[in-house]
Design goal:
single chain, elongated, two-stranded antiparallel sheet, five-stranded antiparallel sheet, 2 domains, alpha+beta, 148 residues, 6 helices
C-alpha cells in the first residue's frame, strides 16, 4: 500500500479487485489496472474527489516513487498482533509456504517469499476464502473484532 497525505485527507493506493484501488481516507474513488495509474490520477487532480481535484496547482507526487509505503509510515513489517492468534498459510509459486496472521493479511495483502524473493499477493477472492474459512473455524465472534 502507498500513502500520500494532503490537507484534504490521506490518499491510499492498495491492491483491490485484481487491480489497484484509489482511496481518500476510507472513501473509495476509483480502480486502476496498476498502482502507477492511480498515482497519476492524483498528480493530475483527476481523482473524483472534488476538494482535491479543484486544487489544480496543489503539490502532488509526480509518480508512485514519491508516495510513502505502509512500512515507512507505520512500521507494518514489525506489527505483532496482540488479539489475533489466527495464522493462515500463503503459498508461493515456488512451492514455499509462509504463515501470516489474518490481521496482517487483511492490511498488507502483499508479502515477500523468503525462499525465492517473489511477491505473494492476496487478491479479493482469496481474502474472502480465507475469511470464510477462519469464520468457520472461529465462530465465537473473533471475526467481528477483525472487521473493525
Amino acid at each position: 500500500m502507498w500513502f500520500f497525505q494532503t490537507e484534504n485527507g490521506m490518499f491510499c493506493i492498495r491492491y483491490f479487485r485484481e487491480g489497484y484501488g484509489l482511496f481518500i481516507d476510507a472513501e473509495y474513488l476509483s480502480w486502476q489496472r496498476d498502482a502507477e495509474g492511480a498515482a497519476k490520477m492524483v498528480s493530475e487532480h483527476r481523482t473524483g474527489h472534488k476538494p482535491w481535484d479543484s486544487l489544480g496547482t496543489a503539490d502532488a507526487p509526480k509518480d508512485l516513487s514519491e508516495w510513502k509505503l505502509l512500512e515507512e509510515i507505520q512500521g507494518a513489517a514489525n506489527i505483532k498482533p496482540t488479539h489475533d492468534p489466527i495464522v493462515v498459510p500463503l503459498d508461493c509459486d515456488c512451492g514455499h509456504q509462509i504463515k501470516e496472521s489474518v490481521a496482517r493479511v487483511r492490511i498488507l495483502r502483499k508479502f515477500r517469499c523468503p525462499a525465492c524473493n517473489k511477491d505473494i499477493t492476496v487478491g479479493d477472492k482469496q481474502l474472502a476464502q480465507i475469511m470464510e474459512k477462519v469464520q468457520q473455524e472461529y465462530p465465537n465472534g473473533l471475526i467481528k473484532s477483525l472487521r473493525k
